[in-house]
Amino acid sequence: MKNALIVLLFLFLSGKVFSQENYEIQVYGSDLIDPGKTIFEVHSNYSLDGVKKSSGGDFPTHHLYRNTIEITHGFNSWFETGFYFFNSFGSDNRTGFQGLHIRPRVRVPKAKNWPVGLSMSAEVGFTHPGFNFTEWNLELRPIIDKKFSKLYISLNPVFDRAFNGPGKAAGFQFSPNAAITYDFTKVITAGVEYYGSLGSLSGFNDPAFQQHLIFLAADLNIDPRWELCPGFGWSTNRMADN
Known about the structure:
Elements: E1 4-10, E2 38-46, E3 65-76, E4 79-89, E5 96-107, E6 117-127, E7 136-148, E8 151-162, E9 173-183, E10 188-197, E11 199-200, E12 203-204, E13 211-223, E14 226-235
Parallel strand pairs: 1-2, 1-14
Antiparallel strand pairs: 2-3, 3-4, 4-5, 5-6, 6-7, 7-8, 8-9, 9-10, 9-11, 10-13, 11-12, 13-14
């Protein structure tokens, strides 16, 4: 059995205005971990230009470093489960363990030969008060992707909701994610990733209060056991960190 350690280093973070739970910034592909294998991932990001003052119980995000340990195990050709452990590092009592999530995911097996990859994840967990207005939340993430020779496209139309806190009454929120990448060499894949937060399904926010985040990202396949994925991201307005 080969072990895989994937280090995801996002150097610039663009966070959500109603949530500081930006411990993992990733557009998912439909592929699952091979049956019987376990991988370890480290997601790291840092806010160079974030919120500098508390806005009612949450901690400022300015110069906050976030780190997530993700452990995922593949059970068979259509099912895997991931576990996330969130940590933060910052001044003024912003350092410590912040929460955890569990993420079961299923997919249409490759043997079905569908024209696109299709999988579905359901992520549920909590974050300590101060790092998220919502302590308990749920994310439903359909994943649709397609490989065209060296070009790859992935769409993640995410639906998430709060179980408590100010966001509970809003119900499910729509947060679309997408990625387009190109294999420049066997080692280097690079492209553009998009992360949005449009508001409640019952009525999207005014465009001025929506969030649209753009990342330039690369996958460096330096070894079968290692992958390094640096990224640079920014917000198109002041509703998110940079």
